[in-house]
Description:
Elements: H1 2-21, H2 32-58, H3 62-89, H4 99-110, H5 113-141, H6 145-169
Helix pairs in contact: 2-3, 2-4, 2-5, 3-6, 4-5, 5-6
Amino acid sequence: xxxxxxxxxxxxxxxxLFACDKDDDNDDETNDRDRSFAMMAAMNNxxxxxxxxxxxxxxxxxxxxxxxxxxxxxxTLASQQLKSIAANEGLYAPDSLDAAHMRLKDTLExxxxxxxxxxxxxxxxxxxxxxxxxxxxxxxxGQHRDLREFARNTLPKLQMHHHHAxxxxxxxx
Length: 173
């Protein structure tokens, strides 16, 4: 008789323990924050590649040209990595510029020489500040494990870009 009373209790306890052990993080699922991150990070990469190509071709200062070439190389690699994750998860990762970067592109096309270098490098300081915040947010609050890992692995490079851009921008203040 005692065994009959213990069995339902044991079954209830096992059910409770199983429910408590359930992984609530859903590390392999995406949420709205993950989808937004993938889209914004992809557009950021595309913007950095586009502006970097212009800087490597139009920059007056050798440091600006080298920085532009580095942006093309580093953000092309980051873009490929992100697109691989996005493709596996069915996420939208556009190869296009947002409205703000379209305006910047139009502005950069109108400038040359020192003026081009100044507008470009100051935009890089600002854009990398924004990107760093975006990636930190994904690391801290993103749900999907691969996107968090991508953000974690990419953040040091973005911080280095920001530091480098800020150093170059000192010549144009």
